[in-house]
Write a structure and sequence with these properties.
This protein is of the alpha+beta class. The chain has a four-stranded mixed sheet with strand order 2-1-3-4, with helices on both faces. The protein is globular. InterPro entries: APOBEC/CMP_deaminase_Zn-bd, CMP_dCMP_dom, Cytidine_deaminase-like. This is Nucleoside deaminase.
Length: about 170
Amino acid sequence: MPDPAGTGRLMPETTSSADFAQRAVDIARASVAAGGLPFGTVIVKDGAILAEGSNCVGTTHDPTDHAEIRAIRAACRTLGTEYLTGCTVYAIAHPCPMCLAALYHCAPDEVVFLATREDCAPYLTGGKDKYFEPGTFYAEFAKPWDERRLPMRYLPRADAVAVYELFREQHAR
């Protein structure tokens, strides 16, 4: 069958969840072989790969350049919408909080992850990331903003809220 995602690969006539999961692993393995991080994501719609991504943070120096985010961006551009209705996302590991938030926003039908945070944590600790520790990273988001390790300060401004009022007025139905 021709390659519906334009990746230059031929897809088998019958593609299964195991095939898509294997593709995510293959992307992550290729990333590691190229000196990158061990993450890969595949987004599937109607039984075909719509988009895929690997983590490119180290090469682009963009801390948001995660495999899931790259794949979401590509899939949404292809579909012409910010929603992934009808799609399944295959990720090599449980998504980080940023990617998880993006997945909630784009609302795919399902997210399939192949390794838990606990599975990956021993291999991802000890880096330069000042606030990233897989064992506590998710817990930080559950804390009130003023109790997080990342210093945050609330500076109330009425004109900031006024922007949202303007938005509501312009988009009222």
